[in-house]
Design a protein that fits this description.
The complex is a heterotrimer of chains A (96), B (317) and C (90). Chain A is an all-alpha fold and 96 residues long. Chain A is 84% helix and 0% strand. Chain A has helices spanning 3-28, 32-54, 61-92. The longest helix of chain C is centred in the C-terminal third of the chain and has 28 residues, at 59-86. The chains are: A mainly alpha (96), B mainly alpha (317), C mainly alpha (90). At the B-C interface, helix 1, helix 2, helix 3, helix 9 and helix 10 of B face helix 1, helix 2 and helix 3 of C.
Chain lengths: 96, 317, 90
């Protein structure tokens, strides 16, 4: 296995671990606001690590840039939607 | 169990579970979310089956735009008077039996094909070099079955007319009132400023790459519509007046160009909708660009809904 | 070997998404359900990228791009719907 493959395995494994942490958080946290934290932070970090790990596996700079672009869009969307969901929580009167 | 099999099993079980939950849940909002979740899972399933074009359409239209139409429908405050009674147990039993019959019939057809399974894939692929295309799906949509695609676009027009006709007479040719009132501001404005430019580039990419890779006019148009709706929801753009000449020209452009190309085909051997030899790909691109725009505008208007306020008169801002 | 590892990672992420969905779809509030769409978006993108790069189906990255855009749009549409439903007027 080359060094790039080792890097991929480590990064993807770390990313998968964060997805696990996020789902455990979703199952165990008591209210919507804390679950939102688990979802936004852990799962997005997991996605970032997975994208990082996949970069050595693709051919060519264009494909790698596409992967990074997908990740950036996911970050932007996730951050903004999190704020909007907080608005919904406040409006529904939960989040105590 | 091998890893791909485990992935497919997890996906299949999850899809069935979400579908069952969507049917069983009692709240409209939850059911619509279940429907959108089901659509996204279906898109993943199509990708696992190798049909990325269908997966793109399912993600963009089946979950995105249709989800927005459904959520607009269930978000209307319920009217107290004039509401029909929910269907009784006999109607529900009949619906369940009919659905089960259709599902069983489809399952029987898919699981017991004649050996060898009939397929037109070889015939479809054989003529790709003449068309200058690399994606057989695009070849089928725009060349082999171009007449179906043309009729689809006209059906879209009719759907828009049907949606508009739900408005009371005094609102005819007015604009949708769905997003009247103070814009929400904050994070939504940020998202609506940053995402649409990216979405427009992605839509153009989907259209352009559809010649050789999965993509297409419908998928690109749906992404464009989603970006336009995002801007309207954030209050950055006003919902257009249904009577606006520019709007009507955009809506008609796709079917009109397609129909014109079809009629011009009479001048060539092959008749209606035949493309001149050697110029197939440019003509297909010429047709697909206005078609994408029309799809985007029509889908956006369908989500915006029937006009909700009277048309602005001349001279008003 | 790498392909098998990536496919296994994709299956694992899918299982994690399933776990999360189990909890989020039950609610009880609307916010939880909107978060379910977000979870499917992020997890779906991860699964697609892992599966696509692993098996060489590069179009999966395009699908992940569209998924990112549309999941954001769907979540906004639901929040917008929740906001409209809360208004007392039409």
């Amino acid at each position: 296995m080359t060094a790039a493959d080792v890097f991929t395995v480590l990064a993807v494994a770390a990313g998968a671990f964060f997805f696990l942490a996020g789902s455990v958080g979703l199952l165990r946290f008591p209210d919507a606001l804390t679950r939102l934290h688990a979802l936004t932070k852990a799962d997005n970090l997991g996605l970032g690590l997975i994208v990082l790990g996949l970069l050595p596996q693709v051919d060519g700079i264009f494909a790698a840039l596409k992967l990074v672009a997908v990740w950036l869009i996911a970050q932007l969307a996730s951050a903004s939607v999190t704020q909007l969901v907080v608005g919904v929580i406040r409006r529904d009167g939960e989040g105590a | 169990m091998t890893a791909p099999l485990a992935l497919d099993a997890a996906l299949a079980l999850l899809t069935l579970g979400v579908a069952a939950w969507t049917v069983a849940t009692r709240q409209n909002f939850a059911a619509v979310i279940g429907f959108v979740a089901y659509g996204l899972l279906l898109a993943l399933s199509w990708q696992r089956l190798g049909s990325v074009d269908v997966a793109l359409t399912e993600a963009a239209l089946g979950s995105g735009v249709t989800g927005a139409v459904l959520i607009a429908a269930v978000s209307r405050p319920p009217r107290a008077a004039g509401r029909a009674a929910p269907p009784g147990p006999r109607v529900r039993l009949a619906a369940a039996l009919l659905s089960a019959l259709v599902a069983l019939a489809l399952a029987a057809l898919v699981l017991t094909p004649p050996e060898p399974a009939p397929s037109l894939a070889a015939a479809a692929a054989a003529h790709l070099p003449e068309l200058g295309l690399g994606n057989p799906v695009t070849a089928v949509l725009m060349a082999y079955r171009g007449i179906d695609t043309l009729l689809e676009k006209i059906v879209l027009l009719l759907a828009l007319l049907a949606a508009w006709s739900l408005a009371p007479d005094r609102f005819w040719t007015g604009a949708s009132a769905a997003w009247d009132g103070a814009p929400p501001g904050g994070a939504l404005t940020l998202l609506a400023r940053f995402l649409p430019p990216i979405g427009v580039v992605a839509a153009v990419y989907l259209l352009w790459v559809s010649a050789d890779e999965p993509g297409g006019a419908f998928q690109g148009g749906a992404v464009l519509a989603a970006m336009w709706l995002l801007a309207m929801m954030a209050g950055l753009l006003r919902a257009p007046e249904a009577g606006s000449p520019l709007l009507r020209r955009l809506v008609a452009a796709g079917p009109a160009v397609f129909l014109a190309v079809g009629v011009l085909g009479f001048a060539l051997p092959g008749g209606f909708l035949s493309y001149p030899t050697g110029f197939e790909k440019p003509v297909i691109v010429l047709v697909e660009v206005p078609v994408t725009l029309s799809i985007a505008v029509v889908l956006g208007l369908l989500v915006a809904g029937a006009p909700g306020r009277p048309p602005r008169k001349e001279g008003q801002s | 070997m790498m392909a098998a590892f990536l496919a296994a990672a994709a299956a694992f992420v899918m299982a994690m998404v399933a776990l999360g969905l189990l909890r989020l779809l039950r609610g009880p509030g609307r916010a939880d359900r909107v978060m379910a769409v977000q979870l499917l978006g992020t997890g779906g993108i991860a699964t697609l990228l892992l599966g696509g790069v692993g098996s060489g189906l590069w179009a999966a990255v395009d699908l992940a791009l569209v998924l990112a855009l549309l999941a954001a749009f769907a979540a906004v549409a639901f929040v917008d719907g929740a906001r409209r439903a809360g208004r007392p007027d039409a």
